[in-house]
Amino acid sequence: MKTIDILQAVQAGKLTPQEAELKLKMQPYQDIGFAKIDHHRALRQGVQEVIYGASKTAEQILKIAQAMDAHGDKNILITRMKPEAAELVGKKLDLFYDPLSKIGIVNREFIDTGDGYIAVISGGTGDQPVSEEAALTAEALGNRVERVYDVGVAGLHRLFAKLDVIMGARVVIVVAGMEGALPSVIGGLVDTPVIAVPTSVGYGASLGGISALLTMLNSCASGVSVVNIDNGFGAGFIASRINHMGGSK
Amino acid sequence: MKTIDILQAVQAGKLTPQEAELKLKMQPYQDIGFAKIDHHRALRQGVQEVIYGASKTAEQILKIAQAMDAHGDKNILITRMKPEAAELVGKKLDLFYDPLSKIGIVNREFIDTGDGYIAVISGGTGDQPVSEEAALTAEALGNRVERVYDVGVAGLHRLFAKLDVIMGARVVIVVAGMEGALPSVIGGLVDTPVIAVPTSVGYGASLGGISALLTMLNSCASGVSVVNIDNGFGAGFIASRINHMGGSK
Amino acid sequence: MKTIDILQAVQAGKLTPQEAELKLKMQPYQDIGFAKIDHHRALRQGVQEVIYGASKTAEQILKIAQAMDAHGDKNILITRMKPEAAELVGKKLDLFYDPLSKIGIVNREFIDTGDGYIAVISGGTGDQPVSEEAALTAEALGNRVERVYDVGVAGLHRLFAKLDVIMGARVVIVVAGMEGALPSVIGGLVDTPVIAVPTSVGYGASLGGISALLTMLNSCASGVSVVNIDNGFGAGFIASRINHMGGSK
Amino acid sequence: MKTIDILQAVQAGKLTPQEAELKLKMQPYQDIGFAKIDHHRALRQGVQEVIYGASKTAEQILKIAQAMDAHGDKNILITRMKPEAAELVGKKLDLFYDPLSKIGIVNREFIDTGDGYIAVISGGTGDQPVSEEAALTAEALGNRVERVYDVGVAGLHRLFAKLDVIMGARVVIVVAGMEGALPSVIGGLVDTPVIAVPTSVGYGASLGGISALLTMLNSCASGVSVVNIDNGFGAGFIASRINHMGGSK
Amino acid sequence: MKTIDILQAVQAGKLTPQEAELKLKMQPYQDIGFAKIDHHRALRQGVQEVIYGASKTAEQILKIAQAMDAHGDKNILITRMKPEAAELVGKKLDLFYDPLSKIGIVNREFIDTGDGYIAVISGGTGDQPVSEEAALTAEALGNRVERVYDVGVAGLHRLFAKLDVIMGARVVIVVAGMEGALPSVIGGLVDTPVIAVPTSVGYGASLGGISALLTMLNSCASGVSVVNIDNGFGAGFIASRINHMGGSK
Amino acid sequence: MKTIDILQAVQAGKLTPQEAELKLKMQPYQDIGFAKIDHHRALRQGVQEVIYGASKTAEQILKIAQAMDAHGDKNILITRMKPEAAELVGKKLDLFYDPLSKIGIVNREFIDTGDGYIAVISGGTGDQPVSEEAALTAEALGNRVERVYDVGVAGLHRLFAKLDVIMGARVVIVVAGMEGALPSVIGGLVDTPVIAVPTSVGYGASLGGISALLTMLNSCASGVSVVNIDNGFGAGFIASRINHMGGSK
Amino acid sequence: MKTIDILQAVQAGKLTPQEAELKLKMQPYQDIGFAKIDHHRALRQGVQEVIYGASKTAEQILKIAQAMDAHGDKNILITRMKPEAAELVGKKLDLFYDPLSKIGIVNREFIDTGDGYIAVISGGTGDQPVSEEAALTAEALGNRVERVYDVGVAGLHRLFAKLDVIMGARVVIVVAGMEGALPSVIGGLVDTPVIAVPTSVGYGASLGGISALLTMLNSCASGVSVVNIDNGFGAGFIASRINHMGGSK
Amino acid sequence: MKTIDILQAVQAGKLTPQEAELKLKMQPYQDIGFAKIDHHRALRQGVQEVIYGASKTAEQILKIAQAMDAHGDKNILITRMKPEAAELVGKKLDLFYDPLSKIGIVNREFIDTGDGYIAVISGGTGDQPVSEEAALTAEALGNRVERVYDVGVAGLHRLFAKLDVIMGARVVIVVAGMEGALPSVIGGLVDTPVIAVPTSVGYGASLGGISALLTMLNSCASGVSVVNIDNGFGAGFIASRINHMGGSK
């Protein structure tokens, strides 16, 4: 119910001013006419509601997932899901679970509603958990994903062998730890948005991913933006938004 | 000349293998069939070539700009242009120059080739140089820009009065210094990609923008990615890419 | 015994100068006339003595608590109390224990001696341990507390639905991890002192709470002061002091 | 005009729903019933509006100050005011200007509306600019201020000679650079809120105030909260809020 | 055998130049006339050889200690000795072991060869392991030690009650974690060298002792020098050196 | 097959241009004439392929090692090999395993193909794991290695007793933790390249090796370059490269 | 007047208790019997009062120095004295001024009241300002000083040529920038206390002296304690204290 | 004069033991038989002595250079030479001076005594001062240098066009600021030692070169070692050492 509707109901005598005021308060700030937000939430919930598993118990996750399942939701995405939570949820619901990235998806179904595909590129095998977090997130949000793994800058020929897949993507996610140089190289090759994800992979002066993060922020290639260390979910989410803006490349 | 053409020329006897090898070397890696890159560079140069003014002398900038002007280029963008460079270039060419953001544009012409408009939002008056760098960059790259300035999180009512402009944008750039909290708030309101730009505005423990940068990387709102401190140009460039992907919201 | 009393005893011949000098030494600096301190300690002990549980064994905690209990103390506050200490103390004394915040209170009794109430606001579910440390501390120190949890800046409508509770408080404690932006938003809404508590919740570049700490220190909202990372106790203690200054809002 | 008034005007036919909706939008979120904010802003503006001089030109400062002066405002506070701005404003208005703290006050008038007095304590002569920023801010906001300067921890006797002034205050601001230990010592002596302000005074590993900031955050004394490095204004503002809560110690 | 002796032996025909050269090589650089070093080593070994237990196995420690015991050494000091090593050594030798500081002393014997006594002062109970490492080290090296524990800056009266003990010492070791302010206060009270030891005690922004370290380095009190975080051994060693320089205060 | 060969095959009609293009794509960028790389890879694989054990399972390591063994490879180097992997591989293949440095070598065979020998110098016993990683790496890559351990800067005579070994080396690797001063001292003594390896050995402000790293980067001795913290492998690899450049000192 | 005297005056009827209490308050905590402090201050002032020139105007410095000169003081030490202050003071008083270290000494007179001499050792020419600050401070405080400059670790032979001077000192101050390794080497050679002073000399990752500071804190040599970056005065002051403890080596 | 000679002189009665001892002291530790060092110094001085200009006055530089010139030295290298020093020296001696890198060379003469050539590669125009410092240093030390400038990772085709020059080098110096990714890419292409030099070029989170430094230390390519930020001289020096080891690739 929009503000204008509430006000017309008052004018029509269907609501007292007091009832109207309460309504305005109860339906937070959307009541002031921000229908778009409401609409967008509705839409978003139509696709799926994301459950952040990190700070929830197995039982809490199950309860939310069951409620969503009862509404007929598909691709219910659960991030940072611990194995014990997966075990519990898996007994009650149709759960896909990837222990590497700790992504769980209830009622998984491949739906491609995007404008093109998303390429997820990573430098080393150690980056795979974060890469998969990004890839599975993007898939659960309705995108086709092409994985291009293990193509670090110290072996450019492996990267070049995959250049057409990379350059054909609508959005590119680049996951890299250690020195984090891969997004700069990719950013110089493609003309699509590049989302860089530093990982905490490395040792010594890698400083838990800070080193890779700094590298990416200082990238000399235009078109590269950065998310937090190990934040594969965030990258997948942003990439999905861009891939759902409508139109084709 | 593509690889296949070179090879056919060899087959046809028009090139000796030695001449062909030289050609392959001289026309870098594009020769191996990465026509897209070449094409994309051509396209990009067709719109404009960016001149990074920071490490160039006034004379160098002038020379490049004149060469581009001779090719009939419009909206020749010059970043971090010092006033003395602007003075020299302004005498010879049709230069727009904003001393605040140090952006110069030769043969400026408003062309809107984007899919929607880009909103550039900033928190305080001190953030304006970086905001304008982003806004003018985006305009020079063919985007319509809506500026929403001085709407910091400590006075949410000012932000809310502009919500329809913000929510109607195809991409949102949020520029903020000090505590850098604005992108998180915006990210919770819109469903479009948010590019966050930390600025070095602040004092004490703002650490030259590091504090704002960390805030943005840790944003609890999904859909926010970050560029380097004070990198208004980078944000405008990325936003333009997204706004030129085709399709409408 | 105050300095003036000692001196008069000397004058009266009841004490030799040597005895008096010893007395002055033995009763530390309060003896020199700082009656207020003495008085204040007496008053404070009347309410309760705080037991810092972190560096004490279960037995040590029990012994102190029993001594205080023998004096008839109520609301004996124990911070950072490990479960094993709680188990031991709980067997001998009437202990309230919250395993989340690790706060223990012996002889808990709700006493409201404050001038108004304290609002404890937190951004995410992960911040709850620290929030409860603040809330339970404040309650044990004689304050009424209103909890407003899970109202992060990325979902302002939830925050707004609680605005009257927040704005009616005499002091506001804001607990937030990750990007730590909540105090800035709250600080712009209320006209009461805001105590900001950064938490170590987050990952990647949250740097164990440093990121949130910096955000809060750089808050563009006036009226915000900050305590150490995860220091819920400190925030509750300060808020209680302010809420016990006398007068009503 | 409150929300309820707008709604009643609609019911009474004095406003069409469309006009009402516009009003609701134009008068930001205060319109939804948050009268307190409005009231508080009115009150605050009645006392004074703070002009942050750091990012404003001399002319801008003059214009704002003149507008406020035209409304009959007293104690118009200008922070971080550069000497050249002071020179310009001083020619047109009745300006008090302290070049050390860079605080300017137009139409200065000592008004004491506080519940008690605020003590501003500092450790070394180098801390005086920040101390005065705090003290003059508090005075301009209607507080009586007692200055206790040059009482560093390395000479406790000087501090002790002033203990009654310190202990009689309603709020204590402690300004210290270098090792920043003073707030811990003060915090152990008083039972009032202590606002600690680290300064950038020092050299070597003082790291521009970071060292003092860390010391204060880690204070072992309860009751100490901290503001940003060199933020004398913030400390004075918070102290004033606490000193205006009503009641007497 | 000193250089001059070797040379005289050559002159006297008791050594060929070749034999002399070999001798000069075999007895490292002391051979060039640095008899003092040799002498000092001899003297030091006479008192005891320190065994750094951190990177040695229980067996290695035992073997070294037994060799020293066979030479009749007293007060054989073992630092960072793990409980399992203590158990093994304790079975074979007369071992004193303090599990808190992880200091082990074989053939302990109180010998006071110092010029005065060393005061070891600490702020909180959590600092005791490091304090004891310093105190036991100093004792093993032949010093009388006075312990003054639990006298933090937030309760100066406890510190003052012990002032004569502190001021009578020949060297003062001050151990403090959290904000690390104690050495500054002590440094302002005494006229003897103060060795400050930061500890890793604390949480939040204490940064594992870095905060206390910075405080101590920035001490405004003259006469304070600093050793590494948690380095109680180093402080005890230096204090012993100063206390063995000869002469009395 | 080199580019020129492919082109000649086209000219000779043995390959169609299409087949040739495919070949060029399949054999990455080496196909464009970078025969050296190819050659060097061939050579390198002839000596051995390095298996990074850190992010591989025991099974993965075994599989790769078996494949290499089947090709008759000697000195198959496995870094950061966990004991459980060593146990598995040791059952199937002829494995040398050093649990300290976690280096495994399958089909170990001492081959000296270098121009001289490499000296590996370390300061303390705690640095031995990294030192051995460097030494065993260098040996597996065909170098003679001289180990000079436990010669820290605080006991120069031990270092001097080994000076001829150090000065006779063709390349010197210096491994040091704590203060990391050893490379500066060595760098002032020798005229060969010095590779410095900081280790994470130390405590307190050693910051996990950052302190030693900074020391080495700031070395006042010319001729010192640095690798990452604990990166013994990298140092051994670089030293081997230099020792295989041909020629003798 | 000591506490006991005051008390006896009360007993004798020469003071009323009220007058006595006032006296006790006015003569801070020394009144409680800490005669040593008083004595020590008297003594210290007898030698000289240090004037910290950094935060004082030329006029302020002059006034203090003149007052001290009027009392017949010798060796009035002024640190961080700017040239313009030196010029002013030099016109009125007998001033020695070293522009390099910015040390000024009024009524300079070489007095040797120490137990031995102090060696000031530095690594590079760039360290000389700080070295001289230490040396001149020590001299002004009544010590004989031996300077051993330009003996960095990268050229040990220069250091060794001076070993007898170094080893004969009662206290050693070691000043070093860049990698700061010198104190570790010296600490391994001497058996006297070593005061290490990091300097801000260096570039790149020397981080304004932080790198040298960390090196010194992590020194593997026992007997080394550290003062703040560039704090030559502090080192000279501490060394003087140790050199005035009485007795001879 | 070697140790053995001194000893024989004693035996022969040509030196008294006292005279011999003095000689041994005066001719530092080389006297004990480390003839190689002496020899190496002689050799090195034969080529040139490096004058560090940063901390020397123009007059000091001139004096040293003149003394060396009087000995007939060629290629006298002066680093970090300020323009005013260059002006003075240029008047008296035959000086080559590059104002960009601040390298001065007296009696410059191209001599190629190396085993191959050194490639100096840099990413951006802003890196040129450091690149030239490296290149001119290497040339002055007797190496042929090939410059490959402006080949950043964001435009790989420019790099590839120069691959044969890069791959033919005996040693490679890679200079890069901003994200510092270039050495990783180069390190993956060549089989020669790579010396990486981070530069302080960049802004925002480049942290004065720390970001590039960390990237390089974390390089995933083997064979890369690193020198300090902006230390072009150090890189040139090391590269020269390697290029003078004898033998050819």
What's the structural blueprint in terms of helices and strands?
Eight copies of one chain form a homooctamer.
Chain A: H1 3-11, H2 17-26, H3 35-47, E1 51-52, H4 58-70, E2 76-79, H5 83-92, E3 95-98, E4 103-106, E5 117-122, H6 128-140, E6 144-148, H7 156-160, H8 163-167, E7 171-176, H9 182-187, E8 194-198, H10 210-217, E9 224-226, H11 232-243
Parallel strand pairs in A: 1-2, 5-6, 5-7, 7-8, 8-9
Antiparallel strand pairs in A: 2-4, 3-4
Helix pairs in contact in A: 1-2, 4-5, 6-11
Account of the protein in words:
Eight copies of one chain form a homooctamer. Chain A has 249 residues and is an alpha/beta fold. Chain A is 42% helix and 16% strand. A five-stranded parallel beta sheet of chain A has the order 6-5-7-8-9. In chain A, α6 (128-140) runs parallel beside α11 (232-243). The interface between E and H is medium-sized, with 17 and 18 residues.
Anisotropy-based shape of chain A = globular
DSSP E strands of chain A, number: 9
Please summarize the sheet with the most strands of chain A: 5 strands, parallel
Oligomeric state of this protein: homooctamer
Q: How big is the Rg of chain A?
A: 21 Å
Task: Let me know the average pLDDT of chain A.
Answer: 83
β-sheet strand percentage of chain A = 15-25%
Q: How many distinct helices of chain A?
A: 11
Identify low-pLDDT runs of chain A.
Answer: 25-47
- Helical percentage of chain A: 40-55%
CATH fold name of the largest domain in chain A: Rossmann fold
Based on the structure given, which CATH architecture of the largest domain in chain A is correct? Answer: 3-Layer(aba) Sandwich
Structural class of chain A: alpha/beta
Order of helices and strands of chain A, N to C? HHHEHEHEEEHEHHEHEHEH
Q: What is the CATH class of the largest domain in chain A?
A: Alpha Beta
Q: How are the strands ordered across the major sheet of chain A? A: 6-5-7-8-9
Whole-number count of domains of chain A: 3
Give the termini distance of chain A in whole angstroms: 37 Å
